[in-house]
Amino acid sequence: MSAHQKLYEGKAKIIYSTDEPEVLLANFKDDATAFNAKKRGTIAGKGEINCKIAAHLFQMLEANGIPTHFIDCPAPNQMRVRAVRIVPLEVVVRNIAAGSLCQQTGLEVGTVLKPPLVEFYYKNDELGDPLLTRDRLLLMSLATPEQLEQLQTMALRINEILKEFFHKCGITLVDFKLEFGLDQQQHMLLADEISPDTCRLWNDSESDPDRRVMDKDRFRRDLGQVEDAYQQVLERVLATTGNVVGG
């Protein structure tokens, strides 16, 4: 594609304008960060792998009634997306206790959460993306009560679809982060990406707590074989997608 203006560069992607005002180009990077960018590195091939995984999952979710910003992929590490105004919240869905939830509550890693827990985090690097209560969100006018209800409903539905899909991949969906945006008609669309960068994924065929990890925790915790884990997720997603789209 011809060169276009860079609009924004984040931790994992660079966003460019295109010849169409309502369409943007996301370039997925190999850069890796953790702990609010205090730890930095590179995961070889990550951009292309995550782009392919996200594209397949977006298409699968679209086929199951979830509106997304995905359009197509003009290159292996590039995704054309509908322009949206991002809601400044990270919506985290947790099926199993892990990570910060265990650190903050004392819950044992691996505790199954019934029902799944939905949390809202303020997208603000300077503040460290803090967890916010519903009342704080409303006080800060980050979303309306109706939008919060819609975000929760969509997140739980996405969780149902992804849990079933990853189960067919032989993977347990532990938890994941979602971002949403509003298009020009004020429709809520799933945005950003769904990938091993934004999900905790455990290999069902492994019982060892370290060996089962198939996501960015391998980078966070210096477990090694990060690229291999990401590649394995991609291979399983590609092998499974055709059997469930539209199902």
Task: Report on this structure.
This protein starts with 5 loop residues before the first strand and ends with a helix. It has two domains: 6-82, Phosphorylase Kinase, domain 1 (2-Layer Sandwich), CATH 3.30.200; 85-225, ATP-grasp fold, B domain (D-amino Acid Aminotransferase, Chain A, domain 1). The strands form three sheets. Strands 8, 9, 10, 11, 12, 13 and 14 form a seven-stranded antiparallel β-sheet that branches. Strands 1-2-3-7-6 form a five-stranded antiparallel β-sheet, covered by helices on one side. Strands 4-5 form a two-stranded antiparallel sheet. Helices cover 31% and strands 32% of the residues. By secondary structure, it is of the alpha+beta class. The longest helix has 24 residues, at 145-168.
Attribute tags:
247 residues; alpha+beta; Phosphorylase Kinase, domain 1; D-amino Acid Aminotransferase, Chain A, domain 1; seven-stranded antiparallel sheet; five-stranded antiparallel sheet
